[in-house]
Amino acid sequence: MPGQIPVVDYLVLGDPPHLQARMCAQCDALYFDRRNACAHCGRRDFTWKALASTGQLRGYTQVHRAAPSVPVPYISAIVELDGGGVVKANLIDAQLDDITPGLTVTMTTFVAGVDDDGTEAIAFGYKPVKEQG
Amino acid sequence: MSSGDIWIIGASMTPFGRHDDKDLIDIAAESALDALGDADVTIEDIDILTMGNVYEANSHNGQRLQKQIGQTGIPVYNVVNACATGATALRVALLSIKAGESDIGLAVGVEKMGKGGLIGGAAKKRDARKVYSPNGRYGSVLKTEGILGTGIMPGVFAQAGTEYALAHGVTATHFAKVAQKNHAHSVLNPLAHYRKEFSLDDILNADVIAFPNTLPMCCPNTDGAASVVVVSDAKLKTMDPDVRRRAVKISASVLTSDPWVEGGQVQPDVSTLTRNAATAAYEQAGVGPEDLDLVELHDCFATAELIHYDNLGLCEPGGAGDFLDSGAPWRDGKTPVNVSGGLLSKGHPLGATGIANIYEVATHLRGEAGDRQITGAKVGLTHVIGLASACAVHILEAGVR
């Protein structure tokens, strides 16, 4: 069984995998990178917050032209997470025609690469939640 | 008694396009000398020089320009502020005059874009073993572009557009209409990089770069320069009547950056800083969007132009699609937008763009825009945005003749 590592440190490979953010202790603003101070209120104290895995798609594009090392096409999505937080990732298992205003999506993970030791880089993306019935 | 107003008395723009036979300073010098000539002054008259350039910003280009057109010992400011660089350079000259340090300033913006464009180059080959190790501010183990969405300009501005589309019901065809308009306008502009009309079908069926933006909906890589000469009110009063007659008043000059918004850390918010800049500019100038005879706004991608109709208050909130459908932003419409052809067809040499927009509007207000003249234009607005993040809005008015 190869080892796994998240592609970014704000992805936690737990059960279930989820995103975590630094949260300003004063105003609850969320950040995926380390902070010297809060860009919203200037406070310097932070706590951690586990983010929801579901949310609504707010904006998107399908990229067809990119640097040579980037496989295309793919759909880039901006997702507003339930309970707070906005994240950018790929929309997977979906076509442009599937996208509607307020589309509900849920997080999923995939292998983005394997290094020379056989360690898998695990990335996250979002897929549409199909209406039941 | 000086009113404290600042006036443009000279403006120029080189042809935008490929200038493979000239270096950056050749292009800047051509534009600077043209602007000085247009103002009927020489470099000897100038109190302050500001130079806007992005890609060669560490080469003290202002001083290099002086060596080509005149080393008079005046203060020089080299300015960089992403795509708002040129407009910021103008503001530095203007602020010096407002501060009473200078009476007359020359602001130059210039860029040679090369052929790389805004999508990035090939990854460097590494000979070392590949072992994943968290790196940088996000602890990433590999390049995340294309894996965690896109952060490059075509994608960022496409996503800004689709966000507006999902909220307000505009379609891919609306965005294509923006490009159709600007390419049609460019046919009348002898300084534009491209001067070719496209049908709506041509635009919609062209290669997709980042949906909904196809190739004709993205600005080309362009070289060019633009310059303006600005003076204080008191200085203008001492000048030749013909210079005074052609002077254009800068009624508002505003620069903003991004205020914090949720999600702004992952997707640059190109709207809030524009809204803030526009609001401040209208207040400063004492005019409203309904008073504008023409607008040159930052259409780096067709999606950007459409949302800026709304951000600049040219339409009702959420009404950018209807505004476009009504024909309002066409050159014969209610509020002509980008009659120069815009960045989409005129071109977008980053450091020059902000001043080129000023040149375009000033030329119309002087009644000197030739075939593309907006008849009787008295008030115009220019807008540029640079990521991340700066927005400059200027409002110009024709002088008292």
TrEMBL record, chain A:
Residues 23-46 form the ChsH2 rubredoxin-like zinc ribbon domain. It comes from the Bacteria. It comes from Rhodococcus opacus (strain B4). This is Uncharacterized protein. Pfam families: OB_ChsH2_C, zf-ChsH2. SUPFAM superfamilies: Nucleic acid-binding proteins. PANTHER family: BLR3430 PROTEIN (PTHR34075). Residues 48-108 form the ChsH2 C-terminal OB-fold domain.
TrEMBL record, chain B:
It holds the Pfam family Thiolase_N. PROSITE patterns: THIOLASE_2 (PS00737). InterPro entries: Thiolase, Thiolase-like, Thiolase_C_2, Thiolase_CS, Thiolase_N. The keyword Transferase applies. One of its GO terms (biological process) is lipid transport. Residues 7-197 form the Thiolase N-terminal domain. Keywords: Acyltransferase, Lipid transport, Lipid-binding, Transferase, Transport. CDD domains: SCP-x_thiolase (cd00829). It comes from the Bacteria. Its EC number is 2.3.1.176. Coiled coil: none annotated. SUPFAM superfamilies: Thiolase-like. Residues 271-396 form the Thiolase C-terminal domain. One of its GO terms (molecular function) is acyltransferase activity, transferring groups other than amino-acyl groups. It is an enzyme of class 2 (transferase). This is propanoyl-CoA C-acyltransferase. It comes from Rhodococcus opacus (strain B4). The lineage of its organism: Bacteria, Bacillati, Actinomycetota, Actinomycetes, Mycobacteriales.
